[in-house]
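Weekly modeling sync, notes
Attendees: S.R. (lead), two postdocs, one rotation student

Agenda item 3: backlog of single-chain predictions. S.R. asked that every request posted to the team notebook include the full sequence so nobody has to chase files. The rotation student volunteered to paste the first one in as an example of the format we agreed on. Action items at the bottom.

Example entry:
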Amino acid sequence: MKLSKKGEYALRALIDLGIAAEVGRSLVQVTELAEREKLPIKFLEQIMMMLKAAGLIESRRGKFGGYRLARPAGKIIIGHVVRLIDGPLAPINCVSQTAYEKCSCPDETHCGLRMLMLDVRNAITSILDRYSLADVVEVTLRKMRRDGVPLPYSEPQRAPWLAGHSRKQARAGFATRMQPVDGLINNLLGDYAI
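Predicted structure, as returned to the notebook:
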């Protein structure tokens, strides 16, 4: 499985719409999404139409129109979005649950490559189907707040713990207290990460 540019842009747009919802912004214009994420607007508009047709987002027309999530972020599963945009998660068709095709192998049951790719598919599926858009938005906002980064789609405001400190001083102080943790799983665990 390789995430296409279309899949990447769809997920980035959904994450931004999830962030906007969390900070109280009801609608986001496609031009804002494209500008913030540095995406080609015409391509993003096509992706937004796909997401809308799938019932993941909705739009309002007009001068003050824009896009928003059509359902709670917790009900949007990342694996579903990837399948919607890029198709099956399986690296080869003979291990796909949704688009199975017999391969050219003479003995599919005992094929070592198939067994390996089945494990790959299962690992990818278990991760992408475990997380909702709400999980990704939560981690994103947590890291932005931790690092003192202004939240997109909201009025600029300084975090209370940064009062009286420059951003550089706050980051330096934070860096001495916390070691950076990468990956969604570790970030969901927050302070409990090992």
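Discussion: group reviewed the output briefly. The CA atoms of residues 74 and 135 lie 7 Å apart.
Action items: rotation student to repeat for the remaining queue; S.R. to check formatting next week.
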